[in-house]
Amino acid sequence: MKKQRFYDFLWAVIVFFAYGCKEKEATPPSAEFAISYKNIKEPLRAPMIVEFTAQEDGATYKWGYVGVSTSGSSSSKTVSVKFTQSGSQNISLTTTKNGISSTKSQTINVLPAYTNARIKKVTLSSFPATNNGSSWDNIIGGGINNNADVFGELKGASGTVLVTLTTADNASPTAGVIWNFTTPFLINSVYNGLPITLSYYDSDNAGASSEYIGGIQFTVSNFITEVEGSRYPTTISGGTTTPTVIELDWQ
Question: Are 176 and 149 found together in one domain?
């Protein structure tokens, strides 16, 4: 009987050390990460900045990416990645915690950057009612009316006229003028890195030169950017005395 009790005790000790004191294996950390495209909508197009955040707290992080530039350390929990190239871009994360590592990767499909913009519509909201205090058409004497006969010229950096906006006779300075382009004007790569000026004039009769009313200037390449709020806008606005909205699309 005593021998049996001894064996029972011995067996209990063996079970205790074999199972009771066995250290519980550590759970591998999560390598999941969240992706924030901010205001960028599908399809994704270069250039753009995407934010990646690891979901595991209290770990060490190692991000991997190819063909992109980043802001922030690759060992940070959150990294902002700038995509400048098109194609399938692979992003990976390795998290390490308690000596155990996990890795996950994901592919981001990026379309090429737009290179061309097309002007579809120009809206001149208002313009000065007078030319420095004098009526526009009366300046040359004997004008048909007192309001300006407004036309516009879209010019390249050298001053070459690219497009002429047809004259709006006796235009109301408060109602403004709208020009719709039947065929959108293409601003291609020849022009998009250089300033483009939209100037307005009063078209005079009797051989007098046209008087300058005002205008705006813009550079298309400034909008081919990763900066949110500035990238690929559908409208460009400007002009202090000649407030203007240019509607466009991108190719």
Answer: yes
